[in-house]
Amino acid sequence: MTSNVVDRLSVKTTLSTIIPSLLNKTTIEIRSDDGLIDPSYAITIATTLAFMVGITQLLLCIFHLGFVTSFLSDSFISGYTTGTAILVFTSQLPDILGLSLKRYVGPFNIIYTYAEIFTNLKNINFVTLIISTCSIITLVIVKEYLDPFYKKKIKKLKLFQNIQIPIPIELIIIIVGTLVSYLFDLNGRYKVKIVNTIGRGFRKPQGPALVLVPSLIKDAIMIAIVALAISISLVKTYAKKFKYFVNSNQELVAYGACNIIGSFFGSYTSAASLSRTSVYVNAGGRTQLANLISCASLLIIILNIGSLFESLPKACLASIIVIAIKGLLLQTKDIYTIGHVTKLEAIVWIVTFLSTVILDVDYGLFFGVIVSLVVVILRQFRPRTTILGQYERSEVYKNAKRFTNVHEIPYIKIFRFESPIIYFNADYFRESLLDTVGIDLKTGQRRNIQSNQSHDYDVNIRSLTHVIIDCSSISQLDYSGGKIFLQTIKELNDCQYKVYLCHLRYYNYDVLEKLEMNKICSVIVTATVHDAVHNIQDELVENNDQLLLANVEL
User: Fold this and answer.
1) What is 328-390 written as a DSSP string?
2) Domains delineated in the chain
3) What is the distance between the alpha carbons of residues 533 and 531, in angstroms, rounded to a whole number?
4) Chunked in runs of 10, what are the mean pLDDT values of the chain (554 residues)?
């Protein structure tokens, strides 16, 4: 996304009015003779964008907008990180095979990349392939077999009972690979791709070009949100694995500070890296102490010993990354578990995964979030409704259609709505409740059950006199939902049904009171379903006694 912004703002007509104010007030051509963007302007645009993204992320934290990450469901995160892992794996294949390929970006880039890989299979560098194969086999053997055995043995020592020290196989491969490449001149003799020159030191601090800020506001907001979503997806993946709490607002502070400070040293917009994080975790990193050691080591390499790693084959690094993301690639099996539990969540996973792999990470984020929101809306728009029955003459009431030893009580219909009742699902509540008790939605009158033999009603519907609404799952009533709720009860009253409400939460009761419940309809509120059933049965017995007494007097 940063490269797209740089390309757009590097067009001569776009920067013609602001070029003189950049880089010591000197007008310089934006593109060189070969058509490439001048690095000075590209860096200026990229660092200013990073600064703006950092400011945006800090503002999101100040206004406590980190809660929006709650919309990133586990299904979305699993599909998104798995799709991203596929892209990372694909990006490492050229280095593993020793191919020099054109880099594709944007939608369908993975298709173009694999097409070019298969086209250039005849150009595979077999020395590079041997290095990759040896590295991968070594990593698998150590990670899957030797490391667990080593940890088990070392744990028997008192000093290491509470400390896990894995075999540093990644570091060993880097050192051995560098030595072999240097001693046998693999790059010169066999054209093995190596890291080459590693820049030494840091750029001189330089502030952002504030004149570019108005042109970057929209892009900064978009990139800040995408970077947050990518990072939080990765954070939640490992938070679930290692059982720690994630504070989204705290994450925003870290990302914002990183981008703002980095922008003064030539850094472009940063976000969590799937490959680097996977390597870090795979190497045994768990705490901030490991991060400090990693950063200190990187600082030493940048300032002093970077030249020692210039002969390192890229195949070694690619192999380490591929093995590190193995766990994320294996998340593809999650689709079977998710699909077995709920089809809607499976759709979220599939759409997120496919859009990430085929279109790219930013499109995957967009479509994944959209589908997740649609699923949430669908669940609220058409929630489950349940008819309850009594469990073996106890005080327990369960789904009458699911359990064989649960039976509905004569003359009583117990209805439960499994969702808050708000403006967009209130009509569904009314329709489902009236249909359940046998009221025609068009006429508002009881249906003639005898004349409609094909209708799937139980025989008790004809003798139904009381309706109990179990409100235990109704966590919220808004204004529209409350009005339709009371209107529905009034329609039941008009059809000579007595209505009971049970498990009604106090704040929902307050909503109904403010809507003048007692003036609109007749309803009895009880604490539990069993209390309502007990009251109704007492009432029915009393009515029967009075009817028998009247017959005797006649």
Assistant:
1) HHGGGGHHHHHHHH-HHHHHHHHHHHHHHHHT-HHHHHHHHHHHHHHHHHHHHHS--EEEEEE
2) 2-378 (no CATH), 385-553 (3.30.750.24)
3) 6
4) 74 48 42 53 88 95 88 90 94 95 90 95 96 96 87 69 77 95 95 87 84 89 89 89 88 94 90 86 82 87 85 96 92 92 94 95 92 90 93 90 90 95 94 93 77 48 88 95 96 95 96 95 95 92 67 50
Dihedral of alpha carbons 208, 209, 211, 214, sign: negative
Q: What pTM was computed for the model? A: 0.80
Location of structure tokens 């589908």: 371
Which residues neighbour 425 within 8 Å (Cβ) at sequence distance 6 or greater?
A: 380, 381, 382, 383, 419, 481
Per-residue tokens: 331: 């998340």
**Spatial contact of 356 and 368, defined as CB atoms under 8 Å apart:** yes
Q: Output the CA angle 456-461-466, nearest 5 degrees.
A: 140
Residue 430 and residue 401: Cα distance in Å, rounded?
21
Phi–psi pair at 437, nearest 5 degrees? -90, 0
Gap between the Cα atoms of 51 and 207, Å rounded: 9
Residue 1 vs residues 4, 91, 111, 258: alpha-carbon distances, Å: 5, 17, 20, 18
Distance CA 450, CA 6 (A): 74
DSSP symbols for 110-169: HHHHHHHHHHTGGG--HHHHHHHHHHHHHHHHIIIIIHHHHHHHHTTSGGGSS------H
Helix (H), strand (E) at residue 68: none
Are the beta carbons of 397 and 389 closer than 8 angstroms?
yes
What gap in Å lies between CA 545 and CA 554, rounded to an integer? 14
Residue of 56, 46, 39, 33 lying closest to 6 (CA atoms): 46
Write the CA distances from 470 to 253, 389, 500, integer angstroms: 44, 12, 8
Pairing relationship of beta strands 406-407 and 523-526 according to DSSP bridges? unpaired
First vs last C-alpha separation in the chain: 90
Report the 10 Å Cβ neighbour count for 173.
Answer: 24
Cα 362 to chain centroid distance, Å, stands at 13
